[in-house]
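seq/struct pair 1
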Amino acid sequence: MKIRALTLTTVLIGSVALAGCGSGSGGSGEKKSGRLKLGFIYATTTQNPFQEMAYGAKAAANADGNVTLNASAPTGVNGPVQTQLFRSAIRSSPDGIGLQALAPDLFVRPLNQAAESDIPTVAVDAAAPPGTKTNLFVGNSNTEVGRALGEEFVKSVPPGTKGEVVIGLAIPGLRLLEQRVEGLTAVIKKERPELTIKGPFDSKSEPTENFNAWNSIVKANPKAIAYLGVGAQDGVSLPLIQKQTGRKFLAGSCDLDPAALKAVKDGQLFALSSPEHWLKGYVAISLLIQSKREGKKLPEGWWNPGTLVVNSGNIDEVMKRQANEQSRNAFFKAEAEKQVKNPSQYLKPLNQAN
């Protein structure tokens, strides 16, 4: 499979929606040709999904060539520390801020503070909480991410197969991960109704905690034929458990941690379902830049940049693309520019985000 063909496997789900007239943090005004000061505040530096979004955000800033980007995050998920970083960005990044948060409700007041200062904001990965004026959300369909993983899973399980399938949920209560579980389980129930689904069990999100949690889950469910996660670390921990225990079982997860990609290459994971985080970071910062350069309000609604399934058929191309920041930039350049230039193809109303 060529890289060109890989691009075509991306699921781009969009419908026509016009840029809103909006209020609050829309950021309309005169065109600005000088240096822009932007922020991208994300959940943690320790996990691949958030690193990917930051890479995309930096690439967008570099593509403009006249942007100072404050990309910062706590070391480890820490909502209160992240809110402090966001408040600092209000002072240092007056031209706009992208926010990726695992606890969006903590940001009602900070987002409103940004709006009061006429700083445009974009929610990335998780929608802004109610009560804010952040009306642009750049995030994939997590229901589709889960469905895509489920569709890959059933290819590995003949019809009529009986047994247990164990599902892990890295952050219970985080809606975007719950949507992945809903999409995943819906496919399994429809396509392989003889299987018994157990969980979702709390598999934790930080690396060490995730490995320990999955170790306990696997020991508590020794007869399961498959263990499926919807977070990034699941695809790292499950292959390690197979290696350490000598057990063979079906395993799959989401996101593109380098260790998980290697596990697909080695056949320890049947697939990864990627929310294409790089594109989210790129699109969010590009739209903020475009708004300032053109003196127009940000578009409003849900911008869905797409989903990608990674399996044995395209793993080599994906690993090549993910080798470093330069390879990511080169691979995504055409797709990213196409999306930013065609907002009506990717926007839906906010209330349709799933």
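seq/struct pair 2
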Amino acid sequence: MKFETFRAGIHPQRFQYQSFEPCSINQPCVWEDSQINLLLENANRALGELNAFSLIVPDIDLFIQMHVAKEAQTSSRIEGTQTEIAEVLMSKQQIGPEQKDDWQEVHNYIDAMNGAILALKTLPLSNRLLKQTHALLMRGVPRENKYPGEFRTSQNWIGGSNLTDAAFIPPHPDSVVDLMSDLEKFWHNQTITVPHLIRIALSHYQFETIHPFLDGNGRIGRLMIPLYLVSHGLLAKPSLYLSDFFERNRGSYYDALTRVRASNDLIHWVRFFLAGVAETATKGRDVFQKILRLRTEVETLVQGLGKRGPLALQALQYLYSKPIITTSELSIALGIATPTANRLIRELMRIGVLFEITGYQRGRVFSFEPYLKLFLS
């Protein structure tokens, strides 16, 4: 496969429409475009720096939880959910009735991501793993009738109200299993020399083009990126998430995918993807640097609380994984009485660690605002 002469696929005539049947992806790749080489070098360097930080930051899994929560919220927002990051971090009981479905979808994504990373310890990246992950993603939401955990057996489409006015019609369902099998082989084919970041760029395009599930394809396709990087050892922890880059450049993202199918412009898509990896990895590295600085600053502050200092340090460890809390949640987490938790929260508010965000006299909610802001910039 030469990028400059790439042919994306064909449009066979069906009964009343033409589906798009992409070409096989499990083959060697070559290109002459020198910009791809430069972008690939930049992306690999940024990814390596991000991975280095994920290996040296103490208690990294606490902060990875926040990365996963942010990714779940952003990836779901691309699909139309309205849940804000603060709401994601609250318990379901604190969410209004009109937001509960969106909240559930985002938390299904968190469960799906965490479940998939855990499964990588015993399973390779595979269609089996993607199906398991999809089943978790679609669990208990209004779209549950869309066959969670199963490849589609009916025709789907993107844009428009039906097949006759659709913006894009993915492959016929009879082709899905073979195309996904070809994609899986591409992930693990050691007889071809294709750099990993090129493989995942092509894989994301191919997955979104196949659209193998009736629903949830966008989220699974984006989640597949960190899964690939972890499973092939490019990242020790799932610390790279491109949904924020795709969401901020949504028009360019969809345009780049469309240009491959419509005009065989694979080079434009690969350039866009590699630029996204470099930008996102650099941003992730910067967040880890800021976390280390913030951790030093706030630990210095709480150590000045005298006898409450040790308990405040315990509270900080909890806040890194759950930066929005109630008094009762802190009381339970630290195993302390409610009055003690209240006094501790007042002290943390006084030194600028916690901020009250509800304004209620009872059932108040508090935010570890300096930490939370690191993931919102």
